[in-house]
Design goal:
The chain is α+β, with helices and mostly antiparallel strands and 646 residues long. The chain folds into three domains: 436 residues, TIM Barrel; 97 residues, Immunoglobulins (Immunoglobulin-like, Sandwich); 77 residues, Immunoglobulin-like (Sandwich). The strands form eight sheets. A five-stranded parallel beta sheet has the order 4-5-6-7-8, covered by helices on one side. This is Beta-mannosidase Ig-fold domain-containing protein.
Length: 646
């Protein structure tokens, strides 16, 4: 027949999933000789970009990966409850240097491989010819991509030999390993590794039977998840379940950090949020522009998969956001969450998005000695506060892999992502508009070098980068009323190369009031380069004494030489969490930031050709003080509810 020609871009790298030696089980991701791919693991979980595969866009996948890299991620995990993704995704990961932790497409109960009696007798394992063919096809199709670092069997299936989940070892990963012996294999996400069948120094398969251990210290975790509650919907609890805001964060006790010390790879946790008004409004009739849609509540019942009876359109848009708003902004005035209209819906969504970023994790590093450094992952404003504090507390401990659930949204509504729905339809930005959380990832949360301060002035600085760092930390206080920035401390820094190089220090906060000031910590190297800027709240928004501010934004007349265009933001008084939003395709160089009285210039970075007229006509600026609620009545916290897995 006719010859077949295939052109592929080839990359070279060696990834070892170091799981210890015969007496010391551990877990370290080492790429080309460097733990954690040059930094601690900073990944996010990727789900399909659209429920309808016919609407998948190669350009949207490429932009989504570009946004992940721009926010300092170094790994993406392909979730087992989704789908094998299009070539454009893997090509973009190859080009941008992101590693891929790849689930086979199985997840939890009900999705597992099913046996047929004939095939069971023939192979001695639970399998079907169709499933085996699909696995072999998927691995052969993707194995040439250097970005793929790890194959694993499934999402949250806990592979136990001699039980139905043993099929992931005896069949799924055995087939995968037979097709690709050049990559590390892992039982599931999360898992405790293998007791046989791989080389413990790099997790490459040996050809011997894959067997999981009967017991082992926890080295990989999922959760906790901050679900929404307070409104009848298909997900979340109808009863309002509040939780502490954890502001300021309470740092764990100091302990040794780095790959040589006990550690955990947190491969899934997160917080829910809605999307922007621009993303959600086109999917709703104007009369339903509100978190409760201005309709009678549905009657929803059931557990994880709830069934709702009624006509409320917001009941079908994932988790509610009532509890997130009340925790950070205080008791909602009567009728506020039921109100509809463009202005109130924008305010509700701003509050919900800010809340996502601020939750402290519950995990503790296990006592048994384990080693693991892996890629890092990265939540709109309330979503942003919840996840930000969560990750900052994790980085204070020896969690060298931090993978957030999730990167992207599959629909233009509520979800767990830090990128909005990215299919190019009305109201959406190609690849996903950045939520406030995504900007916080880029500014500080996933910076290789970051400084964090918490309760009582306890602070740490951490270097997860591949090179030593010498410089200083400048800690300052921004007074809301005056806009004056006062230096509080200058701390010299000299840290070896990461991952996990850290140091503790303390600052005097005896005269610092979190209701009237914002704490800012900048990491600056000896050349004067700013490595990260961390803006830290020491009180929830409901307790802040913010001045009334007018914030505006204007677009330059002409673009810069690199295709970007300047946007000048002005504030009449101190404004916190200034958020710029537009219908134009692209993102801003910074967002969700603090602005003292005066001006600041950010750049709009277009995707493709700049549409200045659309940027100008649709640009809007929001900030925290303009989106506060009246002071709430005193209301004690309810005991946090046990959360279902995401």
């Amino acid at each position: 027949g006719s010859p077949v020609t295939v052109n592929r871009t080839v990359g070279f790298r060696y990834v070892a999933l170091v799981t210890g030696n015969d007496t010391d089980p551990s877990f370290v991701a080492r790429a080309s000789g460097r733990e954690g791919s040059g930094s601690h693991g900073a990944p996010l979980t990727v789900i399909p970009t659209d429920q309808l595969e016919g609407r998948w866009s190669a350009a949207a996948h490429a932009e989504m990966v570009s946004s992940a890299a721009a926010a300092r991620f170094n790994m993406l995990r392909v979730w087992g409850g989704g789908a094998f993704l299009p070539d454009a995704f893997y090509d973009a990961c190859d080009a941008r240097g992101l590693l891929v932790y790849h689930d086979m497409q199985y997840a939890q109960s009900g999705h597992s491989p099913k046996a047929t009696p004939a095939r069971e007798a023939e192979l001695g394992r639970a399998a079907t010819a169709t499933q085996e063919a699909e696995l072999r096809h998927a691995v052969r199709r993707l194995a040439s991509h250097p970005s793929i670092a790890v194959w694993d069997g499934c999402n949250e299936c806990q592979v136990v030999m001699g039980t139905p989940t043993g099929v992931y070892a005896t069949f799924v990963m055995t087939v995968v390993a037979s097709e690709d012996a050049s990559r590390a294999v892992w039982p599931s996400c999360p898992a405790a590794g293998w007791s046989s069948g791989v080389r413990l120094l790099d997790a490459l398969p040996t050809g011997r039977p894959l067997v999981t251990p009967k017991s082992r210290s926890r080295i990989e975790t999922h959760g906790p998840y901050q679900h929404g509650s307070g409104f009848a919907a298909v997900n979340g609890a109808s009863r309002l379940a509040l939780f502490p805001p954890n502001l300021p964060i309470k740092l764990p006790d100091a302990a040794p950090t780095g790959p040589a010390h006990p550690n955990v790879f947190a491969s899934e946790f997160g917080a829910v949020a809605m999307s922007s008004f621009e993303s959600m409004a086109p999917t709703l009739a104007p009369k339903h522009w509100g978190l409760h849609a201005g309709q009678r509540s549905d009657n929803c019942s059931g557990g994880f998969e709830r069934r709702c009876e009624g006509e409320n359109v917001m009941a079908e848009r994932n988790y509610p956001c009532d509890n997130m708003i009340e925790v950070y902004f205080g008791r909602a005035p009567a009728g506020y969450l039921d109100a509809t209209g463009e202005a109130v819906f924008r305010r509700q969504l701003y509050q919900c998005l800010l809340a996502q970023a601020r939750r402290r994790p519950d995990h503790r590093v296990p006592a048994r000695r384990t080693r693991r450094a892996a890629p890092r992952q990265r939540a709109r404003p309330l979503q942003a506060l919840n996840v930000k504090s969560n990750i900052e507390a994790r980085r204070a401990r020896n969690e060298l892999g931090i993978l957030v659930w999730q990167l992207n949204e599959i629909w233009p509504t509520g979800g767990w992502g830090s990128l909005e729905y990215g299919t190019p339809v009305a109201g959406q930005v190609l690849g996903g508009r950045w939520k406030p959380l995504h900007y916080l990832y880029a500014r500080s949360v996933f910076a290789d070098v970051v400084a964090v301060c918490g309760e009582g002035g306890a602070c740490y600085v951490k270097n997860d980068g591949p090179r030593p760092v010498a410089g200083r930390i400048a800690v300052r206080a921004l007074e809301f009323a005056s806009g004056v920035v006062t230096p509080l401390a200058a701390v010299a820094v000299a840290l070896p190369a990461g991952a996990g190089a850290s140091a503790r220090f303390e600052i005097d906060l005896s005269a610092f009031d979190g209701s009237t000031h914002l704490l800012i910590a900048e990491c600056i190297d000896d050349s004067g380069a700013v490595l990260s800027t961390n803006e830290m709240l020491f009180a929830p928004p409901s307790q802040l004494q913010l001045p009334t501010a007018v914030v505006s934004a204007g677009v330059a007349e002409a673009p810069n030489a690199d295709g970007s265009i300047d946007v000048v933001v002005s504030a009449s008084a101190t404004a916190l969490y200034v958020v710029l939003t537009s219908l134009a395709q692209g993102r801003f160089s910074d967002n969700a930031f603090a602005l003292p009285p005066g001006t600041a210039t950010v750049r709009f970075l277009p995707t493709g050709a700049l549409d200045r007229s659309l940027l100008v006509s649709s640009l809007r600026a929001e900030h925290l003080q303009a989106n506060l609620m009246p002071a709430p009545a005193a209301r004690p916290y309810e005991r946090p509810r046990a959360h279902l897995a995401a």
